[in-house]
Amino acid sequence: MSEPTDTVTPLGAGRFLVSRDGRQRLAYGTQAAGATWVFLDGEVIVIGAAPSAARAAAVDEHASLAAPMPATVIAIAVQPGQKVAAGDVLIRLEAMKMELPVRSPRDATVVAVKCREGELVQPGVPLLELDEA
Amino acid sequence: MFTRILVANRGEIAVRILRTCRVMGIETVAVYSDADARSLHVTLADQAVRIGGAAPADSYLLQAAIIDAARATGAQAVHPGYGFLSENDAFAAACAGAGLTFIGPSPDAMAKLGSKTAARRLAEAAGVPVVPGAVPDDQSEAALIAAATRVGFPVLLKPSEGGGGIGMKAVHAATELPAAIAQARREAEAAFGDGTLYVERLVTKPRHVEFQVLGDVHGTVVHLFERECSIQRRHQKVLEETPSTAVTPALRARMGAAAVALAKAAGYSNAGTVEFLVEGAGDGASFYFLEMNARLQVEHPITEAATGVDLVRAQIEVAAGQPVPWTQEQLSQRGHAIEVRVCAEDPRQGFLPQAGVLALYHEPSMPGVRVDSGVCEGGEVSVHYDSLLAKLVAWGDTREAARLRARDALAQYPILGLRTNVPLLMRLLVHPRFVAGDLDTHFLDTEAATLVPADNTPSDAARAVAAAVRARPSTTTGASDSWPDPWASLGGRRV
User: Which of A117, B136, B177, B180 has the lowest tally of Cβ within 10 angstroms?
Assistant: First the structure.
């Protein structure tokens, strides 16, 4: 006996009819932001995007000294030459009315600050430099 | 009555105010920033005026630009919504100076309630309970220990200046005090340049319960019962409901009377909210005044759902000099209402706000459900404003009926193209402690592990749908920097 399979019929405007063993469900789907998004049975499924745990790790490693999204620098808590400990708040950003702290990933010394208070910064651009680990 | 009102806000609250104006037969003027030129609120108004650039400081916070827009369009009144200029007494005064009615309390009442310490003194004078506490003139360790003993353990040590939780220390016994005083003082001096400490009773398992009030310029004030807002994260409310599972009829009567007494003492007119901490439950529960919000609240629709009134209509009527439209006795609560705030944020990345295009967006519609939103499919969620997309309000004749409606409505609310907190809201609505009504303001932190969703492993059906989506690229609306062209998405069809 073969496994029952899902038959998907496009209905237009991002709607899809999913049929399996006589049961019919409405799904929604679209492509956006480099991934395929599906809404089915009350759950959002994103296929083709980096899993969020991997994304969070990526943010921690190479981009932790950059804004995770376009943001405004509201405070710079350190100066060049200052020693900082892992987890110390280096810079406070604000985006969409939420404060986003930029924390030091390790014990280090601040080499240079590359942003100004009040500046709108873009994701991926380093906000400051730490000395080599 | 006014014939034309300017709405000095954006997003869902501007839309909500415009809708009431329309049914009252009042013409409307919207204002917008460059980022909002094609937003929903602009399309719902009779006229729209551009007031500046995308950043709030260049547009929605520009008092002169808003007042100029009101004068140029012949509006007689300004509704500030919430946030932005809504609690700015200088703006309220500037409106009056320009011959415009500010739909809100008087600048004087706003100023009285704007300072936390002044509001606390006002509450004490009106006989409204406040959290027991003291700022000893003598700041020596011995005097602080004596003050803490008078207030009663556990206590909270707070810097008398500042806020935001910096320098706050919970202390459970006198023996822990000397070390805690030294540390709190160090942090207060570093953060605020002032090491003066305040000793306050620590309220354990506090609930946030607020009362809606409405006053008129003739001195009448009524309350429209409570809203329980204990489900919050970093002081941002996530879910609100009314009635509160902690409030009995006797407690409700005491708290309502306190809210009205405070509003009267401040000479308050228009809509406002008195926030309390509640400790314990039942008739003997304690409540303490926190602050008064001199504006319409985000969560006002649950009060509308449970009382059957239109609070924005009432705001406009009392601003026009009319009396409060109901007596206290005419107001009653019917059934139960729950609001969830649908936000563009990713709970799995520390609630990081998400900006982008709403590639697919479809609001649910079913008995007992109201969705207040300021967005539509194809619209862009900008980095310049807060992440609130919509408020979903479910009403039912019981709390359980409202809860099940809220959950079912979320399950029929596809939002694709950016991450939202909907998966978290759905888990919250079925959490055993939430189902039991066992809430406190630490709920979201305490229960985070069971509420933050994991990545879904796509089911076979989801994969099949994804394959069908990829086979039909005409449904794509992916570019984040361009407005999707509705004609392009029609594909090869002739129109």
Answer: A117
